[in-house]
Amino acid sequence: QVQLVESGGGLVQPGGSLRLSCAASGIIFSIYGMGWYRRAPGKQRVLVAAITSGGTTNYPDSVKGRFTIPRDNAKNTVYLQMNSLKPEDTAVYYCNAYLIRDYERRDYWGQGTQVTVSS
Q1: In b/e form, how buried is each residue of 6-41, taking b as 16+ CB within 10 angstroms?
Q2: 118: which residues sit within 8 A by CB, 6+ positions away?
Q3: How far separated are the first and last CA of the chain, in Å rounded?
Q4: pLDDT of residue 61
Q5: Fewer Cβ in 10 A, N or C end of the chain?
Q6: pLDDT tens digits for 30-48?
Q7: Which residues on adjacent β-strands are paired with residue 65?
Q8: Please, are residues 93 and 45 in contact by the beta-carbon 8 Å criterion?
Q9: What is the pLDDT of residues 51-102, one digit of tens each?
């Protein structure tokens, strides 16, 4: 049974930092790409950071330079380090694990964790 368990969400002031964690089980973590998505109220879920099994990262312009996505294969954990947070970063953040094999993509999702940026 695959599980992705997020933690670390909460309330933070604008300009502050927060680190989310996602602990994976039930998969061979090192071969999976990992990502963080977010869904703001009334909006679609969008990618905020991704890292391949080889360590290549990808960020949209909205978070580039502020967010990073390190992974620790020994701990089966991926993180989302968020700095210089803005009110528009407020959203539910979801951890994603993906594997592409034979031109098909398999995805697993966590349950989400709320991040609120407000003074």
Answers
A1: bebbeebeeeeebebbbbbeebebeebbbbbbbeee
A2: 11, 13, 14, 87, 90
A3: 40
A4: 97
A5: N
A6: 999 999 999 999 999 999 9
A7: none
A8: no
A9: 999 999 999 999 999 999 999 999 999 999 999 999 999 999 999 999 999 9
- Residue 55 is classified by DSSP as -
SS3 87: helix
Measured over all CA atoms, what is the biggest interatomic distance in the chain, rounded to whole angstroms?
A: 48
Phi, psi torsion values for 83, nearest 5 degrees: -120, 165
> 43 Cβ partners below 8 Å, 6+ apart?
91
For the CA atoms of 96, 115, 17, 4, the dihedral, rounded to the nearest 10 degrees, stands at -30
CA 70 to CA 44: how far, in whole Å? 25
Q: What's the residue count for the chain? A: 119
16: nearest Cα among 66, 61, 60, 57 = 66
